[in-house]
Amino acid sequence: ESIGNVVLFSVYEYVCYYMHSNIKVASSNYTNLVDIGIGIVSGGLGGVAFWLTVLPLDVAKTLIQTNPDKNCPRNPFRVLSSIYQRAGFNGCYTGLGPTVSRAFPANAAIIVAWELALKMLGIKHD
């Protein structure tokens, strides 16, 4: 998850920076609404990027955990290699659709809640 979190927060910060620098708010009455929209997009895209990064290892982990044979290989990279040989690149991303469709709204909500909590506590996030 460490690598996935690096990707998540890198994408989140980049998208936030890009959107804030390219969106001009017509009125200060809409700044909070714009910030929420930016949080939704940047958090959602960060979550999708996280799962695109870690999903192959998660697939391998799931196969290891659900294999009833206790003598099966426990090395996730060996299992991942086996999946790739058997099913190709698509096999490494089994379940991508449901995972991404869950990741976008879940991470968007988390980021928006986090940013609103920071504002309510008076903590500056520049």
Which SSEs are present, and which pair or pack?
Blueprint: H1 2-22, H2 31-66, H3 76-92, H4 96-121
Transmembrane segments: 36-57
GO molecular function: L-ornithine transmembrane transporter activity
Membrane topology: Multi-pass membrane protein
Question: Summary?
Answer:
The chain is mainly α and 126 residues long.
Q: Please report the number of helical segments.
A: 4
How does the overall form come out from the CA principal axes? elongated
Specify the biggest β-sheet.
Answer: none
Strand fraction band?
under 5%
- What pattern of helices and strands is seen along the backbone? HHHH
The first-to-last residue Cα distance is 25 Å
DSSP, total strands: 0
What is the count of structural domains? 1
Radius of gyration: 19 Å
Structural class: mainly alpha
Mean pLDDT: 91
- Determine the fraction of residues in helical runs and give it as a percent range: over 70%
Low-confidence stretches: none
How is this structure best described in words?
- Solcar repeats lie at residues 34-120.
- There is one protein chain.
- This protein is mainly alpha-helical and 126 residues long.
- The protein has one domain.
- Helices cover 79% and strands 0% of the residues.
- It contains four helices and no strands.
- The mean pLDDT is 91.
